[in-house]
Amino acid sequence: MNYTTEKSGDTIKVELNGRFTFGDHSSFRKLIEEIRSQEAETQILDLSGVEFIDSAGLGMLLLARDEGEKSRATVILKGAQGQVKRMLEVARFDTLFKLED
Amino acid sequence: MPATGEAHPRPLVAVAEPLDQTRAAQILGGRHIFGDGAGAHAELFFGRSPEDFEHRNRYQLCLIPSETGREWLGALVRLNCNYFVECYDGFDLGDLGPLRTAKRGANWDLLVCMSTQSAYQLPMARKFVTALRHRGIIHDTIAPTVEMAVQEAFANSMIHGNLEMNTTGHLSMDRFNELGEETARRLASLIHGGRAIMLTAKKRRNGNVEISIHDQGSGFVPPDETPVPTLPGAESTFGRGLPLIRSLCHDVTFDRGGRTIRLTFAPDASAALPLNTNFVAGLEAAEQGDLRNPRDATILIADDTMISREIIASYLRSDGFTNLVFAKDGEDALEQAHKHSPDLIILDIIMPKMDGYEVCKALRTNPLFAEIPIIAQTALEENEGRTRIFEDGATDLILKPLNKAEMIARTRIHLENRLLVKQLQAYQERTQSELEMARDMQEMLIPKAEQYRGTGLEYGMTISASFQMSSELGGDMWGLAPIDDDRLGVYIVDFAGHGLGAALNTFRLHSLIWSDDRHDDDPGAYLESLNRHLKGLLPVGQYATMLYGVINRTAETFRYASAACTSPVLGNIKTGETTFLDGSGVPLGVIRDARYETREMPFGIDNFLLLYSDALIETVLDDGAFLEGERLLKMVQAIISETGGMTDLASHLADQFMDRAPVKLHDDFTVVSLQPNPSARTTKQHQE
C-alpha cells in the first residue's frame, strides 16, 4: 500500500493505493504519524485506489478511527469499491465509520 | 489412467538463476523433496525467467532463489510446473517433506513453499489464486472469495503460526507499533523468519477444491466454532480472520496439531470448467469406444425378472440390436456397466439389492457414465416416482407393460442422439488439435526469450516481453530487426479479428517483413511499402494495425511510424514520468496509397518504451474497468518506482494484468518493453 496526503482547510484527505494487507505495518504507521502532525477536523481516507484489503487492513482502519477520536476528528471512508466495499460490508463498518461513495 | 511404472524416472527440474548446479544439487539431494530419492539424478534446466523454459516440457519441480521479489511468483502462472520451492538459507521442510516422488501424478495440483521471510513481503494469496484460475482449478467467479479466504488463512499461519505473534487484547497505536517492530525482528531471525510456509491446492473428484496452508509454528489451536462472524469491536484487530474464513469457505479443518489449515471450496455450479490444456499435458483422456452405427451399440438391460429381460431383448433383436448384455439386480447393473461400458442402459426401477434410483445416482457420479442414456422402465404410475427417477439422472422413462414400437423408437432416438454428440465431439477434438498445431506455428513467429534478451544485450538494452495467445487463434506478432551497431528495429502487429484467418494473415505479413531487407528505411516509408504489398494480398475487409520503430542508441532517438497501433508508452525511470505517444495512422491493408508519418522522440539512457496489443487495454478486469489511459500509466509508474527501473517491465506488467484479467482472453496479448541498460553499456557507473 502507498498513499498521498492533501490538506485543505480543516480537512485532510489521504488517498490510499494498492493492496492493503497485514504486511503494511510500516507504511500505515507513517501514515498515522503524518495525519497526527496536521490538525484536521475531518480526515477522509479515500479507498478508491485500494484494490484489496484483508482483516488486518480493516484493523488498521479501526486504529485510524481510534486515533481520529483522540483528536476529536471525524474519520470518513470514501470510495471503497469491489472487494474492499464487500469487506467493509461484511465487517459492518457502516456502524463504525461514516462511509461515502 | 494409472501411472506407468518406470524404473528410475528422472524428474525434470526447472532451476531459476542465479541458483546454480551446486545449490540445486544440495537441495535436491536426500529425500526431503523427492521421497524416492529421484532428486539426486534430476535433469536440471536453467533459466533467467519463466519464458526461458519450454512450455511443452512438464517440470516436476521449480526451484526459485531467495529474494527474487515478485519475478518468480509470475512463474506460478507462466511455467508448466506445479511444485515451486524456494531455496533459502536454513531450508528445512521437517515434517512437511517429502513433497513428492518422481512418478507421474503429484499429490497436489499446485504447491508453493517459501521461507516466512520471503513470503511475508509477497502477495502470495493473490498469486496463488491467479495461478489456480489459470490452471482451471477454480473458476473466475469464485476467485475473489477464495482469495479473501486464502489471504486470511495465510496471514494467520504466518503471524500466529510461524512468527508466533500474540496479537490478542486491545490494540492501541502503541501496541500496534510494538507488534510491528517485533514482527520485523522475528522476520529477520532464522528461528522464525527461516520457517517454511507452504500453500497447496487439490481439486477433488467431486469438484471441491481444497487449499491448505502449512506452517512450522507451534500449532494454533482454534477456539470452538464461532457461530457468526464477530463484528469488529474493541477486541483484537489481527486474528479476526478465522470467522471471516469460515464465512467464505464450504468447510475449514485443522491438521498437524493446528499447523495446517485446510479450506474447502465448493465449485461454482453455474460455471462448467474445462481444465486448462496447457497444464494437463501429462494427463490422458479416457479412451472412448468408437460408435458409428446405432445397431452396433452395446445395450445393458437391467431387470430382476428373467422374462422381462427376454421380452426386451427380443424386441431389440427384432430391430437389429444384437450387442445385448444383462444384469439381474442393481448391484449387477453397476458391475455390468463397468465391465461392458454400454452405450445405453434400460433400467428397471424396482429391483433387489439396489433399486433403479440408486443405480442411476451411482452411474451419474462416475464421469464415465455421466452422459450415457438411461431409459428407466417402471410400472409406477404415480408422479412421485416418475419425477424422482429423472432427478436421479434417468434420460427417459418407459411404462410397463412395454410397447414394442415405443421401446424400439426410444432406444433408437437416444442412441442416435448419443452418436451425433460423439461425432460432434470427435470433430471438435480434431479441429482442436489442428488449431493447436497452428498455434505452435504462430508462436514460432515470436522471438524466444533468449533471442530477444541476447539481441537486447548487443544493443546495451534490457528487452522483456510477454505473449499469451487467446483461447482461439489470434493475430498478434512482434519482433526485432537489428539494422547496424546503433540501430535496432522493432515491430508489433495485430491483425483484426482472430481465428484461422487472422493467423494466416500473420504468416503472410511475417514473410513480407522478412522477405526484403529494408528495415533501415525511414519507418514511415517502410510502412508505406509494406502496406502496398499487403493491400495486394489481403481480401477487402481484412487489415492489421502495426507499429514499426527504430531505436538509435547513439543518436538517442526513437523514430517510429504507426498504422493505428495502440499508443506506445514512453517513460523515464529517473523522473517517473510516463506519456502516451501518438499511435494514429491508417491501418495496413485498407487503402493502397496510405501515407505514414515518421515521428521522432528522444530516447536516452533513462528512457523506456512499452509496446502492447489492445488486449492489454481492452480486457475487462475484475473490477469491471479497463486498464487504459491514466490507469495504465499509473501501473507502469508503480512498477518503476517499486523496482527502481531495474526490471523486466513487460513481465511485471503482464503478471499484474493476469492477476486481474479473466483466464480466457478474447484476443492475443502482447507486451514488449525496451530500455537501455546502463550496466551493459557504460563502463563507469555508480549505482547505489
TrEMBL record, chain A:
Top-rank taxon: Bacteria
Pfam families in the record: STAS (PF01740)
Start and end residues of each STAS domain: 1-101
Family, per entry: Belongs to the anti-sigma-factor antagonist family.
Protein name, as recorded: Anti-sigma factor antagonist
The organism of origin for this protein: Thalassospira permensis NBRC 106175
